Amino acid sequence: MNRLLQHWLTEQAEKFPDKTAIRMGDQSLSYQELERASNRLARILGENGCRQGDRVGFYMPKSPEAYISIFGILKADCLYVPLDPEGPVLRTIKMINKGGVRFLLTTRKSGR
After folding, report:
1. Which residues pair with 30 in a beta bridge?
2. How far is CA 66 from CA 5, 15, 22, 58, 70, in A?
3. CA-to-CA dists, residue 35 to 13, 25, 48, 58, 96, angstroms
4. Average pLDDT for residues 18-38, to the nearest whole number?
């Protein structure tokens, strides 16, 4: 049986809703919180024209938000393109252009 990563998250959220899924420093998310936030992001992407197979870049440091982005993008049936906010700007621009990124997610804390 083939299972996709986003389906695994849904299963874990059903089995262990309050168990910690992600802990980074003083931040943590339960499986249920990660499931709800990623579902919300998937809906927002779809409402804004993101379609199956679209490439969605996420330009943010490693954080709970980055994991929400990965799962949300997958749940929107899209492909994620991780972009390093600490990397050279020109390389990031090249990756966006060459990678066919149609949508870009970021946070206010993404560096430059």
Report:
1. 20
2. 15, 23, 11, 7, 6
3. 6, 20, 20, 18, 27
4. 93
In this structure, the number of other CB atoms found within 10 A of the CB of residue 112 comes to: 7
> 106 and 82 in contact (C-beta within 8 Å)?
no
User: Which of 86, 84, 54, 95 lies closest to 72, judged by CA?
Assistant: 54
Q: In 25-77, which ranges are E strands?
A: 27-30, 55-59
What is the pLDDT confidence band of residue 109, given thresholds at 50, 70 and 90? low
Q: Are 4 and 74 in contact (CB under 8 A)?
A: yes
pLDDT score, position 53 = 95
Sorting pLDDT into bands at 50, 70 and 90, what band is 38? very high
Cα 23 off chain centre by: 16
CB-based contacts of 28: which residues, under 8 Å, 6+ apart? 20, 22, 64
